[in-house]
Amino acid sequence: MSFKILLEIINAIYFILNKNEYKIYDDENEGFYLKEIYYNKDKNKIYFHCREESEEK
Predict the structure, then answer these.
(1) What's the rounded mean pLDDT across residues 27-38?
(2) 24 touches 1 (CB < 8 A)
(3) Quick one: pLDDT at residue 56?
(4) Contacts of 18 (CB under 8 A, 6+ apart)
(5) What sign does the CA torsion over 28, 52, 44, 11 have?
(6) What's the predicted TM-score (pTM) here?
(7) Cα 24 to Cα 32: distance, rounded to the nearest angstrom
(8) Cβ–Cβ contacts within 10 Å for residue 20, how many?
(9) What per-residue confidence (pLDDT) applies to 28?
(10) Quick count: other Cβ atoms within 10 Å of Cβ 33?
(11) What is the phi-psi region of residue 25: left when phi exceeds 0, alpha when psi lies from -120 to 50, beta otherwise?
(12) Is 8 helix (H, G, I), strand (E, B) or coil?
């Protein structure tokens, strides 16, 4: 349960950063920035979703 809360806190921070134009960009895919992270319990791994900057416009 506490791990889920930690991920929610981290995603809240990303949301605030993105909203204020402080984005964390993907080094290998310029134009994409970090949107959120999530845990896949079946694979027992943490993944992330990126958003393309042009999707906002």
Answers:
(1) 94
(2) no
(3) 64
(4) 33, 34, 35
(5) positive
(6) 0.77
(7) 9
(8) 8
(9) 93
(10) 19
(11) beta
(12) helix
The C-alpha R_g of the chain, in whole angstroms, comes to 12
25 contacts: CB under 8 Å, gap ≥ 6: 31, 32, 33, 34
Q: What would the mean pLDDT of 5-33 be, rounded to a whole number?
A: 94
CA distance 47 to 57: 26
- The Cα–Cα gap between 25 and 57 comes to 17
Residue 35 pLDDT grade (very low, low, confident, very high; cuts 50, 70, 90): very high
Q: How does pLDDT run across 13-22, given as a tens digit for each residue?
A: 999 999 999 9
3-state SS class at 48: strand
